[in-house]
Write a structure and sequence with these properties.
This is MarR family transcriptional regulator. One of its GO terms (molecular function) is DNA binding. Keywords: DNA-binding, Transcription, Transcription regulation. The chain is mainly alpha-helical and 153 residues long. The chain has two domains: 120 residues, Arc Repressor Mutant, subunit A; 29 residues, no CATH class. The protein is built from eight helices and three strands, in the order αααβααββααα. The chain is elongated and about 60 Å long.
Length: 153
Amino acid sequence: MSEKEQLIADIMGAHIRMQHLFADDRSDPLFSSHLTMSQLKILLLLARHGTLAGGELARLVGVGAAALSGMIDRLVVQELVTRTEDVHDRRIRRIGLTKAGTELIDGIITAGVAKQRDLLSRLSAEELAVVSQATHLLLREAAAIRDEASGQV
């Protein structure tokens, strides 16, 4: 194994070990939400895209309209999403997050932020500079991968 390959393996292994350490924390809102994977996917898509027409949401989730309708019914009962008529076409139902749905998803997405801040606060200024530089290098390459995938290069 080349030196570069060994370094990549070491970094990947360290990231996996850190994820396992963080995953042991059961205070994460994901563990208390009682959402199915499909329901979580719906909420994440709505958080990313905003209010969507039912048909568009069904396509993004990868299910039929009837299956989506049942999932949405359960999320409406939990007061996590709303179902409203489209203002331009009354046949179309638009699905959006409620305040509670937004707060739940925001809590799930940002659950690790406090843990990460606590972890970083334990490092010296010199160590933080190294982490900052490495993070910026990773962000640069992640943006390059995204741009290549979307044909923007």
